[in-house]
Structure of Lysophospholipase:
Amino acid sequence: MKTFGVCFIACACYLSRVSGQALAAQKYAPTLQPCPGGTALVREAGSNAYTQTLGDEEAGYIAARRSLVLPNAWASYSRNVQQNTPVALPAYVDTILSGLLGKEALPNLGIASSGGGLRAALFGAGVLSALDGRNQSSVQAGLGGLLQAAQYLSGLSGGSWLVSSLSQADFPTLPDLIFGTQQADADGFGGWITPENLLQPGANSNETAEFLELFVEEVHGKWAAGFPVSVADVWGRSLARHFVNGTTADDFADATLAHGAGLTLSGVANVSTFRAYAQPFPIVIADSLVNRPNGTVVIIEPDEIVPLVNPIYEFNAYESGSFDPMLGAFTPTKFLGSPNSSVCALGFDQLSFIQGASSNLFNSMNTSAAALASSAIGPIIGLIEETMPQTGLRLDAADIPNPFFGLAQGTFVDTNSKILSLVDGGEDGQTTPLQPLLVRARGLDTIIAIDAPADTSDNFADGSSLIATQTRVQLLKPAYAFPPVPSTQTEYLAQNLTKRPTFFGCNSAPDAGDALVVYIANGGAPLGEPPLTNNPTAKLSYTADEAQAVLNQVFDVATQGIPVSAAGGETKDPEWPACLACAVVDRARRRLGVQRDGVCVSCFERYCWS
Ligand SMILES: *[C@@H]1O[C@H](CO)[C@@H](O)[C@H](O)[C@H]1NC(C)=O
Ligand SMILES: *[C@@H]1O[C@H](CO)[C@@H](O)[C@H](O)[C@H]1NC(C)=O
Ligand SMILES: *[C@@H]1O[C@H](CO)[C@@H](O)[C@H](O)[C@H]1NC(C)=O
Ligand SMILES: *[C@@H]1O[C@H](CO)[C@@H](O)[C@H](O)[C@H]1NC(C)=O
Ligand SMILES: *[C@@H]1O[C@H](CO)[C@@H](O)[C@H](O)[C@H]1NC(C)=O
Ligand SMILES: *[C@@H]1O[C@H](CO)[C@@H](O)[C@H](O)[C@H]1NC(C)=O
Ligand SMILES: *[C@@H]1O[C@H](CO)[C@@H](O)[C@H](O)[C@H]1NC(C)=O
Ligand SMILES: *[C@@H]1O[C@H](CO)[C@@H](O)[C@H](O)[C@H]1NC(C)=O
């Protein structure tokens, strides 16, 4: 309560002092201008999942990547895995991957990286590093090169920080992404700066309060320009200092810098690796609350859970919207926030805001009147109400003028809502962002699902996310196809399915249309190591040493496979890299009508859940 009061007074002075000066405040504000001729603010992608289409720009990216980048990427991965496994792979693996059968025969791989705060961001980064063909240890472990060969990379919440920061920083190696590089200039990427707390920066509560005031000041211009502003904007300004270009550890507290304000999701299409089709196509997602139009400011729904039937929204550099059959519509990301098709908004799609939306857990906190002041967002809500009065708005969600107003009446719950209110993409229970990778038009063969939520009391995964995805796929039938997975957490735990890589969908019929899912969960420490990867989601700062130790341990998690007995006790499975290669090519093999063969047969016996 005390911080609350101090904050208001300090804030009023602060605002009058810096208002109109801060660079970030100017750059964060969207601008309005006449829409370019021929602009369509809505693309209907279709509600029939079998006939849905990708946007032209995404389709172009994917086609160009497939012909210009992936043939070399797959050939290189194939060499890595063959040179670094003690077993011979069946001939069809290399025949497919080396491109002998043409680029149409190559596998179509997607990777999904889960939510779960910084723990999940670091866990996902560790797995991606183990798949990175630029890392010699990963190459020697026989996994390196898969990251370069993936078509899509999806993230939510902590995973959205990973996916979006990696993409906008021009696809550096994971250690460079997390720890920064010496040569980064003022506008470059300065690393994740994990020692500084994401939610409560500063050395003490006074400094934290000052940071909060600054973050609120930075979003003021957006409000003044007539756009809705909520905690997701303010939270995003903190995230910007960690996951967007423009901040180093040294200038973290410098209030005169832009700290990534002005850098947009649509702008990611301009970074050089994106222009060269050299990164997997990045997608981040957020869940939606159903908005009921109401004249009062609605702050709270304590302990809210998002129903699985609510639309899931995805954001990529080109388009934002939903493939869910209830909506099936997109708007150009660069024009997100536009009031109507004659006046277009530019700069609403700030990267920090999208990151804030995807990780907006604030609606699930206890923000009842009695608990608000002592909750982490109490001071932010207070400052917003004080300095940016608004009506009819969820202050505890990310609010976006609804581009799909009036659309899909009868199926789209928000058709009559002027605002879409979005929250953390994991709030419906699906912490792993599989939905974008299940879209039939994307045609994925294999999905590497990286799952690091705090399901168990000791912050490990228990399969809840896959269970939720299976349930949603049933509810939305026939929009998505998903392989059978165990339907109780007990089964995952009893069979150790979260403690070792598990393949799902090994024996699906071709007409099932599902991808083969390679599940890599954060389910326990690797052989002989004390657990380091199960910190609470609320741990929002890591020293560099802690972060490095997590990366090292995740490398062992990702490269261990199912441990095998050996002379001196259990060891990593030397065949695991070969088994992963078998999984990655398996749908492509089936398309060719070739029998599963050689080591792939025994691999599937060990790694498949039946
Ligand atoms: C290779 O990956 C490991 C594990 O993620 C990491 O600790 C190491 O720094 C990486 N090496 C390089 C050169 O990036
Ligand atoms: C971010 O900085 C990196 C260099 O660190 C640069 O290559 C990249 O283009 C920048 N991204 C944006 C969106 O400005
Ligand atoms: C925080 O600010 C208050 C009021 O200005 C002051 O009394 C207190 O000593 C400060 N606390 C710290 C840790 O600096
Ligand atoms: C991409 O860069 C060009 C010039 O380098 C610039 O004109 C354009 O506005 C940029 N696009 C975005 C979306 O940032
Ligand atoms: C609007 O919200 C208030 C406060 O939550 C509630 O009491 C009221 O019933 C709502 N009105 C409508 C029309 O939903
Ligand atoms: C479009 O939005 C602008 C800005 O809010 C408003 O001034 C204008 O009247 C709107 N035009 C139409 C046709 O609704
Ligand atoms: C929320 O907090 C208030 C005040 O501390 C408490 O009375 C209430 O039971 C809490 N609600 C929930 C759902 O935990
Ligand atoms: C699960 O792992 C434990 C210890 O790691 C082992 O004792 C047990 O046999 C395993 N269960 C199965 C079904 O593999």
About this structure: Confidence is low (pLDDT under 50) at residues 1-20. The domain at 5-29+39-68+107-525 is CATH 3.40.1090.10 (Cytosolic phospholipase A2 catalytic domain). Residues 266-267, 270, 334 surround 2-acetamido-2-deoxy-beta-D-glucopyranose (ligand 4) (CB under 6 Å). The longest helix spans residues 2-18.
